[in-house]
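seq:
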Amino acid sequence: MVRAAGAEVGAAVSIVDRSEGRADLGVPYAALWTASAPAWRPEDCPLCKAGLPFVKPGSRKEPT
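struct:
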């Protein structure tokens, strides 16, 4: 988007890098924190295989 606006990109930064350092943005890149975020195909998901429901981290419980 920045390049499309005619600017030259010299570097990129983020607060969290969930790519585990594998992101290639074509410019120097730095992050404050690198996090591991495992992902599986549905057929390989251990929660799916165990029949457990998906729960989004930080989601709120239904009011009682």
